[in-house]
Amino acid sequence: MPKAAYHFPRGFLWGTATAAHQVEGNNTNNNWWAWEQDGHTVDKSGLACDWWGGRWKEDFDRAAEAGQNAHRLSVEWSRIQPDPDRWDENALDRYRQMLRGLRERGMTAMVTLHHFSDPLWLMEQGGWENGETPGKFADFVRKTMEALKEYTTLWVTINEPNVYAYSGYVAGAFPPGKKDMKTALRVMTNLVRGHAQAYRAIHEVQREARVGMAVNYRSIFPANPKSPLDRWVAKTQSGIFNDLFPRAAQDGKVKFLYKTINVPEAAGTQDFIGLNYYSRDYVTFDLRLPGELFGRRAYAEDADLSDTGFIANEPAGFFEALKWARGFGKPIIVTENGVEDADDHMRPRYLAQHIHQLWRAVNFNWRIKGYFHWSLVDNFEWERGWTQRFGLWELDVETQARRKRPSADLYAEICKENGLSSEMVEKYCPEALEKIFPE
Ligand code: GAL
Predict the structure, then answer these.
(1) Fewest CB within 10 A of the end CB: N or C in the chain?
(2) In this predicted structure, what is the pLDDT of residue 390?
(3) CA 88 to CA 59: how far, in whole Å?
């Protein structure tokens, strides 16, 4: 077969994404730490990847040497504001050092201001159920911005507000472990307000800032496309899970089933769409699942599944997600995409097939600015603890030793080449060659 390559535009951002609680370690002052101590997770985060102890340096070295020109990290609210009336300047200084560390390695930083974890003191006041939380979040954002603004102009206000609300208030797997749709709707509305106020706070401090949310897009298909009920439930679930937040940030309306809540301050509050994509579900109408809006989701029967069955390799869903994101008329940044795969048998093809779909979208001239793989090194996977390994580098949690997986080399070749070639696919995942470079 002749050699071929798919290239990306000059200046495309290639990086990995991480989140404070998942990598820092000893985040004792937030709700996730408490949730872990109460036995709700399979393991505890403990030292995590010990970034707070300084191991971010070696990990940033790895990323830079592997050709990555960007990194998305998050700051931990409970460290910066350990009590309602106290700011911790040392914590801010630590984040300044990390961001300087990226700059010194020639990497663009993207900073997420909220990635799932909340300060304990905030949760004692009701967390995002409380109507005062959006304003408190904006105060925290303003303070953090003042300290960090010289290091980046790329900001994510809230990571996956849809997953935060669903997992914490519908499924009950995240703290506070509630299963109550009404509360979930209040939390969602407050998250929209929090995003909107943060958006404005950021732009007040830094006019040239580019601000967005990172939304987890699930491709949701009717299991039986001929069934009107399956089609209805797919559309309904998708309308809430995928659309609610970015749409509210466009038009200031929170639309939930047949209800509309006006949040006028949210209109026009996204400069880009942050897209997290992992997989696609097939949904069947099921009256027994009111909490899931009457839909039972499953992967395709013949799906290419990850280690624990958490993710199906569905690259076509990624293209669909990009097309959806394009509908908002803003630039797109892929803020997360990846798979759990301890022995790296699946990740190379998952990565190559998703980059191929990304290129297809880029090739239509859709305004896609970068791609952040989840994740740089294995990190603490929330309620699933250390059972899922998403890193390009493997982590030995006991010794803190890192070991490179083959996918790290594949991704390095992609980053350095600013593209994906048939030679790379032949070398790392020949089984996907026909799909990516058909004869
Ligand atoms: C996302 C989340 C990340 C990471 C990833 C893999 O939903 O933003 O923090 O956990 O999933 O499970």
Answers:
(1) C
(2) 98
(3) 25
321-339 pLDDT, tens digit per residue, is: 999 999 999 999 999 999 9
**Phi and psi of 399, rounded to 5°?**
-95, -10
Instruction: Answer yes or no: is pLDDT of 439 > 90.
Output: no
Q: Return the residue whose CA atom lies nearest to atom 10 of ligand 1.
A: 381
- Rounded Cα distance between 313 and 305, Å, is 6
Conformation bin of residue 203: beta by default, left when phi > 0, alpha when psi is -120 to 50: alpha
For the chain, list the domains and their CATH numbers: 5-436 (3.20.20.80)
Asked if 6 and 437 touch (Cβ cutoff 8 Å), the reply is no
Banded pLDDT at 1 (limits 50, 70, 90): low
Helix axes 244-251, 181-205, angle to 10 degrees: 50
Ligand 1, atom 4: closest residue by C-alpha: 381
State the pLDDT at residue 44.
98
Q: Which two tokens stand for residue 329?
A: 């008329």
Per-residue pLDDT for 227 more than 70? yes
Q: What string of DSSP letters covers 160-227? A: -HHHHHHHHHTS--STT----HHHHHHHHHHHHHHHHHHHHHHHHH-TT-EEEEEEEEEEEEESSTT-
Reading phi first (left if > 0) and then psi (alpha if -120 to 50, else beta), residue 244 is in: alpha
Collapsing DSSP states into helix, strand and coil, what is residue 233?
Answer: helix
- The helix, strand and coil proportions of the chain, stated in percent and rounded to the nearest 5, come to 45, 20, 35
User: pLDDT tens, 229-264?
Assistant: 999 999 999 999 999 999 999 999 999 999 999 999
Determine which helix (DSSP H) or strand (DSSP E) holds 333, and give its type and residue range.
strand 332-336
